[in-house]
Design goal:
Number of helices: 12
Order of helices and strands: HHHHHHEHEEEEEEHEEHHHH
CATH architecture of the largest domain: Up-down Bundle
Number of strands: 9
Helix content: 40-55%
Oligomer: single chain
Number of domains: 3
Length: about 400
């Protein structure tokens, strides 16, 4: 493994950081999350057209830059530092790779160039709190997480030569603003029970939900006898395998994003304790405060190394390290954000200060993609570290 980044990778990081410093400060983040879209469309257009962010990991034949997961992780790290609300995760990291892996030639040719340009955004809709399971991060995704023929989730049935969807999905990342939904639905009953992915271009009802982490807007999607298009042309497609592959790369990207957020909130905390005085001196000069911040610094650097390794391993086919890296990064962000709240004192609890946003990002991501102990248990189970292959969680 070559731990050095290329000049192009360093340029991606530098350019994106400079742009976000100018365009995505705390006030801009607050205004974006309160908007109808849940993000700043003008900033997204800049990220798409000038920097090519949504097409970084897509092949050049489909309008992308032909880069790897590593470049997406570096971009996500900068987005995480600013807590920048954007469709990058939902559209470029979760949905586009599924279209690339499972879509027909016509579907890929029609949709992927539009996603790569930022003209079209997509979102992955899976039932309730099953996103981590569907991606194979916290459990086996070959089970009945898409409904299993029972109430809940989304059901699909054939009708008039096409497919019709019925059901409801909560907590769809950027689902209220996405132009295209990839909906996981159960079909086949008990005899041929399976989960398939469908393209939902219009129809249904979308309602934006209140979320703990406002920088990750979510929606409820309801479909009642709505026409949909099967993703791909093979009903026996390995949907679970494709989702697990996307889950591993998405975990590496998410880990880098969490590291960026942890690094930034630690920087802000160090700046604050250097200014705030108590007993006639800056509180950052007290040994106890130095020790606490030093512990967080070491933790952030360790999580960064794990995230970079996971991105490299995913890009090179060297193993599935995304889940473990994500567990370490989420744990680091939660600990660093909690330390920041305490060391900021009274203002750390105020709505106006940005510290609480980092703490909510940590808690919200663990609810969506964790919890941490399940991520680690799943990684251990997959690696066969315990006899019998079962890990109690």
């Amino acid at each position: 493994m070559d731990a050095a980044f290329t000049a192009e990778q360093d340029e991606i990081r530098r350019t994106l950081r400079e742009l976000l410093l100018r365009r995505c400060g705390p006030r801009e983040v607050g205004a974006a999350v309160d908007s109808a879209a849940g993000h700043d469309p003008a900033l997204w257009e800049t990220l798409s057209r000038q920097l090519g962010l949504p097409g970084l990991a897509l092949p050049e034949s489909h309008g992308g830059a032909g880069c790897s997961v590593t470049e997406s992780a570096l971009a996500a790290e900068e987005l995480g530092r600013a807590l920048a609300p954007s469709p990058f995760l939902a559209s470029a990291v979760l949905s586009a790779p599924l279209l690339l892996a499972l879509g027909t030639g016509a579907q890929r040719a029609e949709l992927l160039p539009r996603i790569a340009s930022g003209e079209l955004t997509a979102a992955l809709a899976v039932p309730g709190a099953a996103l981590a399971t569907a991606l194979g991060l916290s459990g086996d995704n070959r089970g009945d997480w898409a409904g299993g023929g029972r109430a809940g989730g989304v059901q699909a049935r054939r009708a008039d030569g096409g497919w019709r969807l019925y059901g409801e999905v909560d907590q769809v990342l950027d689902g209220h603003s996405a132009g295209l939904l990839l909906v996981a639905a159960h079909t086949g009953g008990f005899a041929r029970s399976r989960t398939l992915l469908f393209l939902l271009r219009d129809g249904g009802t979308r309602t934006r939900q209140t979320a703990l982490d406002a920088t990750r807007p979510r929606a409820r999607v309801q479909v009642r006898d709505v026409a949909a298009e099967l993703l791909g042309d093979d009903e026996s497609a390995e949907v679970a395998r494709a989702l697990a592959a996307v889950g591993d790369s998405a975990a590496a990207v998410l880990a880098a994003e969490a590291v960026g957020a942890a690094d930034r909130v630690l920087e802000r905390t160090v700046e604050h304790v250097g200014r705030r005085e108590q007993f006639g001196r800056a509180i950052g000069s007290f040994q106890a405060v130095k020790h606490r911040l030093a512990d967080r610094y070491v933790q952030v650097q360790a999580a960064r190394s794990a995230a970079y390794y996971a991105a490299w391993a995913t890009a090179s086919g060297g193993g599935r390290a995304g889940g473990l890296a994500l567990a370490q990064a989420l744990e680091t962000l939660r600990a660093t954000a909690a330390e920041a709240v305490q060391l900021h004192g009274g203002i750390g609890f105020t709505w106006e200060h940005e510290t609480h946003l980092y703490f909510k990002r940590a808690a919200g991501d663990e609810l969506l993609f964790g919890p941490v102990h399940r991520l680690r248990a799943r990684a251990a189970d997959t690696a066969g570290l315990f006899d019998g292959g079962e890990v109690a969680v």
